[in-house]
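User: I'm putting together notes for a lab meeting next week and I want to include a structural view of one of the chains we've been expressing. I don't have a solved structure, so I'd like a prediction I can at least talk through. The sequence is below, exactly as it appears in our construct file.
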Amino acid sequence: MYPHALIDLHCDTLTALRPEDAPLLDALRDPPRRRDAFAALTNRVRETDTLDLPGRHFSLSSIPEGMRWCQCCAIFIPDGLSQEEAVAYYHLHQGNFHRQMAALSAKVLPCRTAADIEAAWAQGKAAAILTVENGSALAGRLDRVDTLARDGVRMVTLTWNGENEIASGSVTEHGLSDFGREAVRALEGAGILVDVSHLNDRGFADLLSVAQKPFVASHSNARTVCGHRRNLTDEQVREMAARGCLIGLNYYNIFLRPDGQPATLDDLWRHVAHLVELGAEHCLALGSDADGADLPPCLDGPEKFAGLYGFLLERGLSVPQAEGILWKNALNFFHRQLI
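Assistant: Thanks for the context. Below is the predicted structure for the 339-residue chain, given as structure tokens.
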């Protein structure tokens, strides 16, 4: 049983090249090898349709027949790049996103608003929304917020795991910088969603004093259920629910269960049930982390993502509740926030 539609708030498929290209990404993090690695990476990116490769967690050709699908596609920027390198890396993949949108236009359309998503669906095509994972793409410059907005970016994950000019991620300790506070206001002003996944607890607390609009945790689960620091505390979830925010359920094994075993749908259900109990029912969505994390066999492809609808109904959710998690909560949020 499949839902009418599905919206996924986060995947790394856009920047995930073939396994044989992994050495290039390793070299990119090594300053002496970085220039040659970037040149080779540029050639690979320009010739690889990453959004429709077989064998991926997500590919356009693997979407179940007749499913209306919206995929948020992140430009993931690794930690450790210089400001100049982070900007170049962003523009390389931003250009590749739009190249692929043209090359794959029979299957997918780039979208900026909820109305765009619905228009793509009406044509029988998937919808793709461009996002950025790691605010290092701003390179400490507020004028780059307008650049990202012009490029069609609709959401920015403020940090990855480490520290950038905006704030610190989950493996570091600092909160929002002065620039970070300005950046949050500028992103909101430009109509770009602020994403707190990867942000540490201190940064989250700082954000609450700055944010004027509802924000997103595009791929984060409940820390009470699985105690990883990347997951949200109960207090954070309640605050997001009160502010009308959006939380995307992450399928990464280590964010679903703490013992290192492959996760099951029952593990995901425990997060759903807990978040609903905290009052976040109308904030819940999907944020798979496809092609950027180790996903369990029960959640390793679009058909299985869509199969969550039937599973949630079997677990006792009503049709409106299950549809809310699979797509309606996110679409309603986009109607309100992506103007």
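A couple of points you could mention at the meeting. The first helix runs from residue 22 to 28. DSSP finds 13 helices and nine strands in the chain.

User: Perfect, that's what I needed.
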